[in-house]
Automatic annotation (TrEMBL):
Any Pfam family hit: HTH_18
Listed transmembrane segments: 6-28, 40-58, 103-127, 139-157, 178-198, 204-221
Keywords tagged on the record: DNA-binding, Membrane, Transcription, Transcription regulation, Transmembrane, Transmembrane helix
SUPFAM superfamilies, per the entry: Homeodomain-like
Span of domain HTH araC/xylS-type: 259-363
Organism of this sequence: Tenacibaculum platacis
UniProt-recorded name of the protein: AraC family transcriptional regulator
Length: 363
């Protein structure tokens, strides 16, 4: 019996598919990543893995029964919607929400029903279709090929609206990168479908999955880290919003503008904005930025940035002491309290406390 020879690129392609399958299961069943909105990313990767397994066998000219059964469903109309749903769930801008997104699933359902009716007759020979239907089968699959080109592009455009408002948020940078990678993969698939529509010939997907392997490794080593970090920050914010702020305002000072600044700090948490600037705060207080610096120097011992970072560290220390936040990373707490990078967080925390965040937590 001669051993089966599998080309190197096909091995890489199969490994990419299996990685995609494992990642989807990790997201869907791991307690660290499972959540209502993360599940949609897990569904997307799972569906893409199913598509990849189908294509891998078809490219090899093999057609196991399980692959034929999976082919009853037109998965290419499902994963663009689950991905779009994921970006919608991660969007915090209600004005960008897409109304009626659930209706997009109908295209997958309706076309899969028609495809199943045809396939159960032509492939599984369970029954015979009327001649009037048989004459339109080719037109049906030609329409499927055309929609496979149009539909992913439509969902890419819709999802772009959802990730656009993250452009000024450093912690959401990974979402934009995720959108770019997925869009490239989907457009690569669109090009294959366009060729199939124009020439009625299906190209092998080996090179597509070879490229996809690069994306999957990025998702593991970088995306998951940001993925967990973003989730932690969201949950920290949710818990913190439920708490009544019991910090006392400094009423010893006679400067009303400084008291208003303290209210903005303690009640509005303006210092949790990583892009907060002196000019922005002065505008809220309706005073000049120079006068703002003056009243801070009169009532504290430092500059505007020292004052803001002091309150950021103060909030971080309170969260570290709270046992409800023990399961969240220190970096996610630091970023949620207003620092825009790991370096800035650790440097300013040690400047205020003389300890690193880890040392402070252990102490």
């Amino acid at each position: 019996m001669q051993p089966i020879q599998i080309p190197f690129l096909e091995i890489i392609s199969l490994l990419s598919v299996l990685h995609c399958l494992v990642l989807s299961l990790v997201i869907l069943f791991s307690k660290f990543f499972r959540s209502k909105h993360n599940n949609y990313l897990g569904y997307t990767l799972l569906i893409i893995a199913i598509v990849g397994i189908n294509n891998w066998f078809w490219d090899r000219g093999s057609n196991p029964t399980i692959i034929s059964l999976l082919d009853l469903f037109l998965w290419q109309f499902l994963y663009p919607v689950t991905l779009l749903h994921f970006f919608q769930k991660t969007s915090e801008d209600e004005t960008k929400k897409i109304v009626g997104i659930k209706y997009l699933y109908l295209l997958f359902i309706v076309l899969s029903v028609f495809n199943s009716v045809i396939s159960l007759s032509t492939i599984f020979n369970l029954y015979s279709l009327p001649q009037t239907i048989c004459t339109h089968v080719d037109q049906f699959y030609k329409a499927i090929s055309f929609l496979s080109v149009i539909f992913p592009i439509y969902t890419i455009i819709l999802s772009y609206r959802l990730v656009l408002h993250h452009k000024d948020n450093p912690s959401k940078k990974w979402l934009r990168q995720l959108w770019i990678y997925f869009s490239i993969l989907m457009l690569f698939g669109v090009a294959f479908e366009l060729y199939r529509f124009l020439y009625s010939e299906k190209l092998p997907f080996t090179y597509l999955w070879t490229f996809a392997s690069i994306f999957l490794y990025w998702l593991v080593y970088k995306g998951f880290y940001q993925f967990k970090l973003s989730n932690d920050r969201y949950e920290i914010r949710t818990i913190a919003k439920k708490e009544k702020n019991q910090l006392a305002t400094n009423t010893n000072t006679k400067n009303t503008h400084f008291n208003k600044l303290l209210l903005l700090i303690e009640k509005e948490k303006i210092h949790h904005d990583p892009n907060l600037s002196r000019d922005n705060v002065a505008e809220q207080l309706e005073i000049s930025s120079g006068y703002l610096s003056q009243i801070i120097k009169e009532n504290t011992t430092g500059s505007f940035s020292d004052f803001i970072n002091y309150h950021r560290v103060k909030d971080i220390k309170a969260l570290i002491k709270d046992p409800r936040f023990d399961n969240y990373s220190l970096l996610s707490i630091g970023l949620e309290c207003g620092f825009n990078s790991k370096t800035s967080f650790y440097t300013n925390f040690k400047k205020e406390t003389g300890l690193t965040p880890n040392q402070y937590k252990n102490k």
